Amino acid sequence: MHAASRDALSHAAESIDAIVGDDVAKAAATGAELFELVEFLDAERQLRLALADQASEGQQRCDLTDQLFGGKLAQPTLDALKTAVSQNWSTPRELRDGLVLLARRALLRGAQAEGQLAQVEDELFQLARILEDEPKLVQLLGEKMVAPDRRRQLAAAVLYGKVTKYTEALVLQVIGRPEHDAIDDVDTLVHQVAEFSGHDVAHVVSAGEVSAGQRAQLAEKLGRIYGREMRVHTEIDPELLGGVTVKVGNELIDGSLRGRIARLRAELV
């Protein structure tokens, strides 16, 4: 996002926090309704342009929002939308993307109120790893010729009864309106949940099981290295032969035996 949109999003996020507070029902309903609103705006280009038009005053955009959506949206959702459109967004697209982030934030407020944030983050991480092993499913979920509702139905069938309602709602949104492929989009959600929770994420792949104590030690060491709180997510890959790889953002630290052998072979060539 451009600087103006980042500032607009910051103000709108504060508004969402105040609107939903710790009210679980309100948070879930507001998040879901904002997602539906984004889908409506995706099909209404002229309306998107009008709601983000910097040639008009913020109050004028609020009045337009009242005229169009008053009585059609629940009051918390309408209040969140009016706060968002009253800000100056760099482009209509960034207003749209901002509304998606606000919807996600509302859901995360609900998860936080129910003490489920860590569970949501873990579920999303594990789902992304499952998708890595299911290329045909990833291809189907990203197929543009398949209607968004059909993709959601497919994802819902996979998720039903296995994850929290917050995880399901977040995943169904990105499956319905993907930005990249399903793996990248779900991993993006992992990082957004982590950011909301006030920490960063380390993706650790090991040749064998990593105990809770080892995860805690690794999180502490990485926190010292990167200067911020870290949460470690792990997966097992026996093909590493030994050791671990650690990925933080775009940085990969390869301390695996397989990696060491590969480097040794390269030096001997």
Automatic annotation (TrEMBL):
Q: Name one GO molecular function term.
A: hydrolase activity
tRNA processing is among the record's keywords: no
Instruction: Classify the source by domain of life.
Output: Bacteria
**One Pfam entry name:** OSCP
What is the first-listed, main subcellular location in coarse terms?
A: membrane
Q: Which SUPFAM superfamilies match?
A: N-terminal domain of the delta subunit of the F1F0-ATP synthase (SSF47928)
Report the subcellular localization.
Cell membrane; Membrane
Q: Which UniProt keywords apply?
A: ATP synthesis, Cell membrane, CF(1), Hydrogen ion transport, Hydrolase, Ion transport, Membrane, Transport
Membrane topology type, per the record? Answer: Peripheral membrane protein
Entry keyword annotation includes Cell cycle: no
What Gene3D superfamilies does this protein's entry cite? N-terminal domain of the delta subunit of the F1F0-ATP synthase
Briefly, what is this protein's role?
Answer: This protein is part of the stalk that links CF(0) to CF(1). It either transmits conformational changes from CF(0) to CF(1) or is implicated in proton conduction.
* Entry's family note: Belongs to the ATPase delta chain family.
Official protein name in the record: ATP synthase subunit delta
What lineage is on file? Answer: Bacteria, Bacillati, Actinomycetota, Actinomycetes, Mycobacteriales
